[in-house]
Amino acid sequence: MLRIVEVRNTEEFRSLREEWNTLLAQSTANTIFLSWEWLYSWWEVFGREGTLSILLAATPEGELRGAAPLMRSTRGLGPLRVQSLEFMGSHSVSSEYLDFICLKGCEEEVIESFLDYVLKSP
What we know:
single chain; alpha+beta; four-stranded antiparallel beta sheet; three-stranded antiparallel beta sheet; 7 strands
């Protein structure tokens, strides 16, 4: 199982640029809509509607294997409020392609690690 780290602030997100884009270039999801530049710019303009919840999957040695560009939002109708975990870029000005970023050949392990983390999170 991979180690999952959750990025919750803009400064941490800002520091991921090089590592993020290196991973993206080695993934099957290599699209401009998943680049650090696109997502960081989107977050700067439209991120006020939620809180960062980017998940990073790494080996015990710290080698990045996956990234999940996610955010938490609270939506409601009247007094009912529901918290959701959604892809960055999924509302306001929507991105054309929303996905997890996984190193080629590590997709199953990365997705299983993300799912395990999310299901165990409060």
